[in-house]
């Protein structure tokens, strides 16, 4: 039996994927035509798959270039998403593992690709969190400019229409957050996990707000500080390289947390929301925008590939759990919405940018890193489309001592 045929029982006879292997073997689906082709280029790819028969093994083989996909990755991953390890019979798994045992033995000292990252130290300590953020964000600001586009926003956009551009959608997202926070001239905004500072700058430029943005990424902070100066916003915006837990100021009118909660962790959520509550004046609002899982049945810890290559220590929690923790910290919950379809569109736009600027992205971050992004963004788009992951915005307010929220009867958003 050739290498390609070895994988057909695992994929399924009707899975619309062709497998082509380095030994010349080819396996095609018995049913409908093929939507993509997996090319197993070397025995090293087999060794990675044998050593970790899950998404981590697949990622190692793909990132290192020993396995490739001919065709649209989103389409291929959508087809493969129908397959789960529980769908494969124990007998098939045992037979496949037995056949791959010699390969695994020949490559028993095989190291993972250098892009793979392992965390060290106490979970969610300041040092470990800084290490996780540096792994993902301190890659190359130019790389992110090429992938994210002029908006430099690395969070879910809010598309006002199906035909809106990525830049229009990112502006609409920041406008939506500003509307929910009821930002007005003279207010003070704390923007935690501010990234490249776009929410802080939007609040200053369009609402006359005094904004403090904080990020654990040194590269993000340096880029944002220069951009603040370039836009002439230095009197209104400060971007600080620090842990949000080290912000001494208080009495803010609003807090925006856009894409940070995923990095906080279940055990730290109570203290996280309590800390943000303590930073607000009476009547102040918090807008929490983060990726969630659809229910408690889905695991909270990230997929092995995402954890080792993309977002170390990331945890995704159900929206209801987040809301209960916000409420428990003292916030009255005023509004929430799910933007998961918007995140799929955002990821597809980023993937298109990566593909259009592929050579320059490789020059900036390296072939392996570019392949990580080329795999994880379509994979996440599939996850949002299939409702394996979601994106929720939750709005809370710090009531005064008489229970007044300061909200209009029918907010515009």
From TrEMBL:
Matches recorded under SUPFAM superfamilies: S-adenosyl-L-methionine-dependent methyltransferases
Ranges annotated as spanning the membrane: none
Classification via InterPro entries: CFA/CMAS, CMAS, SAM-dependent_MTases_sf
Protein keywords: Lipid metabolism, Methyltransferase, S-adenosyl-L-methionine, Transferase
Pfam families tied to this protein: CMAS
Superkingdom to which the source organism belongs: Bacteria
Chain coiled-coil ranges: none
Family affiliation: Belongs to the CFA/CMAS family.
Name listed for the protein in its UniProt record: Cyclopropane-fatty-acyl-phospholipid synthase family protein
Originating organism: Actinomycetospora endophytica
């Amino acid at each position: 039996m050739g290498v390609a045929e070895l994988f057909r029982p695992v994929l399924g006879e009707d899975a619309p994927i062709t497998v082509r292997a380095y030994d010349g073997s080819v396996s095609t689906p018995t049913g409908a035509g093929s939507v993509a082709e997996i090319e197993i280029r070397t025995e090293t790819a087999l060794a990675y798959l044998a050593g970790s028969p899950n998404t981590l093994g697949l990622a190692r083989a793909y990132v290192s270039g020993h396995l490739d996909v001919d065709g649209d990755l989103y389409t291929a991953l959508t087809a493969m998403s129908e397959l789960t390890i529980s769908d494969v019979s124990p007998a098939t798994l045992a037979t496949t593992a037995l056949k791959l045992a010699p390969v695994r033995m020949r490559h028993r000292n095989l190291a993972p690709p250098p892009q793979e990252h392992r965390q060290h130290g106490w979970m969610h300590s300041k040092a470990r969190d800084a290490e996780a953020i540096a792994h993902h964000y301190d890659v190359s600001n130019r790389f992110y400019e090429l992938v994210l586009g002029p908006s430099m926003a690395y969070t879910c956009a809010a598309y006002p229409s199906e035909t809106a551009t990525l830049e229009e959608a990112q502006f609409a997202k920041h406008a939506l957050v500003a509307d929910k926070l009821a930002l007005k001239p003279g207010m003070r905004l704390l923007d935690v996990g501010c990234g490249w500072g776009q929410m802080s700058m939007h609040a200053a430029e369009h609402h006359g707000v005094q904004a403090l943005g904080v990020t654990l990424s040194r590269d993000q902070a340096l880029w944002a500080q220069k951009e603040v100066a370039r836009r002439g916003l230095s009197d209104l915006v400060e971007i600080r390289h620090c842990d949000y837990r080290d912000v001494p100021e208080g009495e803010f009118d609003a807090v925006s947390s856009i894409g940070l909660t995923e990095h906080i962790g279940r055990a730290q959520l109570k203290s996280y929301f309590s800390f943000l509550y303590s930073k607000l004046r009476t009547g102040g609002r918090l807008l929490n925008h983060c990726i969630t899982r659809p229910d408690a049945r889905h695991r909270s810890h990230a997929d092995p590939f995402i954890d080792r290559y993309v977002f170390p220590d990331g945890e995704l929690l159900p929206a209801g759990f987040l809301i209960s923790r916000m409420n428990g910290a003292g916030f009255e919950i005023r509004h929430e919405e799910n933007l998961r379809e918007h995140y799929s569109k955002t990821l597809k736009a980023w993937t298109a940018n990566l593909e259009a600027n592929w050579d320059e992205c490789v020059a900036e971050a390296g072939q392996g890193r570019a392949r990580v992004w080329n795999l994880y963004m379509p994979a996440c788009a599939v996850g949002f489309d299939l409702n394996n992951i979601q994106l929720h915005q939750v709005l809370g307010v710090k009531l005064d001592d008489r229970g007044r929220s300061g909200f209009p009867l029918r907010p515009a958003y």
